[in-house]
């Protein structure tokens, strides 16, 4: 039978607590017994000293006993006392009436030690009753041992009662501990049970479900937070792959259908070499568009999965020079003028290739959605925060002189496959992924991107990235 973790936890706690409680009770019993025995021994020595002094207080009478008769003892302080007067040969000369004809109670070895003046203590048995005796020796030519004892049956009975009481307390403590321990374990494991139930629902495919946050940031709270972070990453990866599959099938279906149609038309009749070359050129262009679209989709998936690339210091002026060089032909074809105003000592922190992709997209959008003789201006300035614990930011503006984006469309332009002007997107070959990819990349480097407000005509895209000025 497999026991639950709660039951096993309770049993382990019960065993540990029972062991500690048993040790404590043993210590109490042993300490009480030792104290009572020491007190008994002290009382015995006192009584024996008194008896020894009174036994030789009348020299003309020799050694004698002055033990009070039990019947005459109204205070009964000596009711459990018994005495034997023993000579050096081990013969009883006188003993208490209650002993009757009992033989010598102390062993020969103890008698020898008493005669040597050591005053030994020994446990004895008097007609079935337990007792304890001490032997003291008299002084003089004839040496006698006065052995004084006390019955210990009442003491032993008290110790037995104490042991039974301690055992009862131990058993009761174990039972109470089992109940309290099981209850506390149940309460302590309640968050774990809820986590297990929620994890079971997540395992069935409900990846949007999250674990309930704990009110206290203890071990369970930290575990819950970390698991939720892991689930966020996992859900993001699953959703990114799901969107990739959906987007890829949706966006690639059109080019593939067009390519198949062009192939069918080409194969319907014999064509010249130039005709086949023209058809292959069209197919090549279609494949180039599909390749670019596939790369964009993969880049978007990696960005949405938050696969952080290595971060390095990127000189913004050099980056923008390369961006302008790559987009110069497109600007010339659209008769758009490009300008760059970026300080040479300005840097941002990120990946140069990914950031180049962002500004390539922004500049190409500024060119394509512009008018003839228009302009695309790139400017950058550092924004320093007066608070010491806030890092500097670099703001890069990509401003074009084309049509202004309506205010209600400024957030939607960053959605995947959103086209502000679908007819123009078809003419330019855009898939509506450029700004979506740009936003995901900027977010990777803890930056922001937005459509800025501008009093002039045209559109300004504002990008803020961690960075600042550096010395040459």
The name of the CATH superfamily of the largest domain reads Histidine kinase-like ATPase, C-terminal domain
CATH architecture title of the largest domain? 2-Layer Sandwich
Total number of distinct structural domains: 3
Radius of gyration: 51 Å
Mean pLDDT, all residues: 82
Number of strands: 12
- What's the end-to-end separation, in Å? 74 Å
SSE string? HEEHEEEHHHEHEEHEEHHEE
Oligomer: single chain
What CATH first level of the largest domain would be assigned?
Answer: Alpha Beta
As residue ranges, the low-confidence spans are: 68-78
State the shape: rod-shaped
The number of helices is 9
What percent of the residues sit in helical stretches (DSSP H or I)?
Answer: 40-55%
Work out the strand percent. Answer: 15-25%
Largest sheet properties: 7 strands, mixed
Protein structure class: alpha+beta
CATH topology (fold) name of the largest domain: Heat Shock Protein 90
Keywords:
rod-shaped; single chain; 472 residues; 5-stranded antiparallel beta sheet; 12 strands; alpha+beta; Beta-Lactamase
How would you describe what is shown here?
52% of the residues lie in helices and 17% in strands. The chain is α+β, with helices and mostly antiparallel strands and 472 residues long. The protein folds into 3 domains: 5-158, 2-Layer Sandwich (Beta-Lactamase); 220-304; 312-469, 2-Layer Sandwich (Heat Shock Protein 90), CATH 3.30.565. A hairpin with a 4-residue loop joins β1 and β2 (92-95). The longest helix is centred in the first third of the chain and has 51 residues, at 5-55. The protein is rod-shaped. Residues 68-78 have low confidence and may be disordered.
């Amino acid at each position: 039978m497999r026991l639950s973790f709660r039951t096993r936890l309770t049993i382990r706690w019960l065993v540990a607590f029972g062991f500690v409680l048993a040790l404590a009770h043993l210590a109490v019993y042993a300490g009480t017994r030792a104290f009572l025995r020491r007190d008994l021994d002290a009382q015995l020595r006192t009584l024996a000293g008194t008896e020894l002094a009174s036994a030789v207080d009348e020299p003309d009478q020799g050694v004698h006993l002055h033990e009070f008769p039990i019947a005459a003892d109204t205070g009964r302080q000596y009711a459990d006392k018994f005495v034997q007067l023993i000579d050096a040969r081990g013969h009883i000369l006188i003993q208490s009436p209650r002993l009757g004809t009992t033989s010598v109670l102390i062993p020969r070895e103890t008698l020898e030690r008493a005669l040597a003046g050591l005053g030994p203590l020994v446990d004895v048995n008097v007609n079935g009753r337990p007792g304890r005796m001490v032997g003291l020796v008299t002084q003089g030519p004839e040496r006698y041992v006065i052995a004084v004892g006390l019955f210990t049956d009442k003491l032993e009975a008290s110790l037995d009662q104490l042991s039974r009481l301690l055992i009862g307390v131990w058993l009761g403590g174990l039972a109470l501990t089992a109940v309290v321990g099981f209850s506390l374990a149940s309460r302590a494991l309640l968050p774990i049970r809820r986590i297990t139930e929620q994890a079971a629902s997540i395992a069935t495919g409900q990846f949007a479900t999250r674990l309930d946050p704990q009110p206290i940031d203890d071990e369970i709270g930290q575990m819950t937070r970390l698991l939720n972070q892991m689930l966020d990453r996992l859900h993001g990866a699953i959703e990114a792959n799901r969107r990739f599959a959906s987007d890829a099938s949706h966006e690639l279906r059109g080019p593939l259908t067009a390519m198949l149609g062009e192939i069918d038309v080409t194969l319907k009749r014999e064509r010249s070499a130039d005709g086949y070359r023209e058809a292959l050129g069209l197919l090549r262009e279609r494949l180039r568009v599909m390749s670019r679209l596939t790369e964009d989709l993969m880049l978007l998936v990696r960005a949405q999965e938050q696969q952080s690339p290595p971060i390095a210091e990127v000189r913004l002026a050099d980056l923008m020079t390369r961006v302008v060089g790559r987009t110069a032909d497109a600007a010339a074809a659209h008769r758009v003028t490009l300008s760059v105003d970026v300080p040479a000592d300005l840097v941002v922190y990120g990946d140069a290739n990914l950031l180049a992709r962002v500004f390539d997209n922004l500049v190409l959008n500024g060119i394509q959605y512009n008018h003839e003789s228009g302009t695309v201006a790139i400017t950058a300035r550092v924004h320093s925060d007066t608070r010491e614990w806030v890092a500097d930011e670099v703001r890069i503006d990509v401003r074009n002189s084309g049509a202004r984006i309506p205010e209600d469309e400024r957030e939607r332009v960053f959605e995947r496959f959103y086209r502000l002007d679908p007819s123009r997107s078809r003419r330019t070959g855009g898939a509506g992924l450029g700004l979506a990819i740009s936003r995901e990349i900027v977010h990777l480097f803890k930056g922001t991107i937005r459509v800025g407000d501008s009093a002039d005509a045209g559109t300004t895209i504002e990008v803020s990235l961690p960075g600042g000025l550096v010395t040459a």
